[in-house]
Amino acid sequence: MPAFWIRRDSVAAAAQSDAADEQIIARIRLVLTVAAFLSAAAAAPQPDGVLLWLLGAYMAMALGLFLAAEAEMRLSFQRALHWFDLLWCFLFLNVGSFDPGDFLRFFLFAILSAGLRQGFDEGAKIALVAATGYGISTLNNLSEDNLSLIFVRTVFICALGYLIAQLGEQRLQLRRRIALLRALAQPSNARLGIDHTVTAMMEGTRAFFAADRCVLVLGAPGKGWTVRTVQAGGPLAVPAVAIDPDAAQPFLAVPDDGTILYRRRRLARLLPAHPHERRHWRPHASLPCERVADLLEADNFISAPVVLAEASGRVYVSRASQPYTRSDALFLSQAVAQAMPVAEHVALLDRIASEAASNERQRLALNMHDTAVQPYIGLALGLAALRLKVPPDNPIAPELDALAGMVQSVIADLRDFAGSVANRAQGDQAESLCSGALARLAVQMRERYGLTVRVDVQKGMELGDRLAAEVIQIVREGLNNIGKHTAAREGVVRVRRADRKLSIEIDNVCAEGAVGPFVPHSIRQRAAVLGGQVHVHRASSATAVCVEIPI
Prior knowledge:
The protein is built from 14 helices and 13 strands. The chain is of the alpha+beta class. The longest helix has 64 residues, at 326-389. The radius of gyration is 33 Å and the shape is elongated. It catalyses: ATP + protein L-histidine = ADP + protein N-phospho-L-histidine.
């Protein structure tokens, strides 16, 4: 049975569930050990001193692990504890004088703890090692009378261990599926737009199925077809790319209401006749599926129909290695049904916000031209008239020329900014490359304030257009504050992504004098709109403004 995984930090309840499992395992270990110790101590006619010493040491370890589990402590070796339990079992078998059958419960406990922690693969390994070790350890007492008993007990460990491991795997899969459905029902940050939301959903689905890529093909009558492709380590927001109908056709050459399961190296290519008849699978023509597999560069994929607002299409989850199962394909349909209403809601909010923002930008650009640009133009004309009255040999002539140049530069900046505000839509890709835009901003700061800025953006991190624009505005405001309100002439900008958060740090270096407590008002407002927070770290000669935005 395949084992799937999902990022532990994607669902907060995962750590709590693990802690509860560890408490259960620790309690069972302690109860079994105490019972075995009491049984060994009461053995007649004379208790085995070596065995009692080993059981006492194991009981002390079990008590310590019990106390740690009750305190919800995370131990570095916690996920390998079942191997230590198995090692103690072998010590009991080979050192003590107890009946080997009395220690079967310890073997089954080790298998149980492995299955609960890591699923079928680890549980099956423990079961196999336990059965082999039990058989070898009991060979010294081999006789015609107990040969059949040893064989039965060995088979019993294998069979029951396999069942326990399967149950542990099913429990883990159920918990991971619930975690994925919960994550899909709660978009990471709806303020960042539909592209970010859909990309986050696709990335969560891709990670859950351990897939190489997740592809979403959508189209609507009269609006053409689009495709999104999400791979590991990709950008936070993948925009929909328009494609020709001929390019989209191979992905749609399957029944509209069918859930597809394709395995190139198996004889069966299966799909259900109807989405509600999930127990009735039937073969499907392999040629269209093989063509899709070639396009996806994968040997195995699952696919489900998607309906998003007025568009419809299919989502494909593919990988080149381990085949998927029917259960995987059916769960993909459930995940899509869970995610699409949330995506439609975010798309509606995004459309409303985009239209409102576009109207507000137009009004803002006009107001900026009337209230900011026009006065500077008047100032420039006044300076030009004053300069005509000043002879060339006057000492203030160069200063007037420099002042006039600064005014013209400010007018050009204001006009450029007003034009970008009026023309840039939310989905434009004008500043999609965050690192390049920040590098240009660093050059502007050096020319304007003489401020040397070092930009440090995490390698391989790509932001969506909307988030990149917000990051650039936050950094611009922070650097302007350094240039205007401090004596610092060095700055550092760091952009990092970790633990589902985007971290922006703006430092000034070698500032003169201590800085009083403050929080930049405009940066705090921008971060609050995105659901983030601002922290200011002050030192004797430097200040760092840290912005954290959930993604």
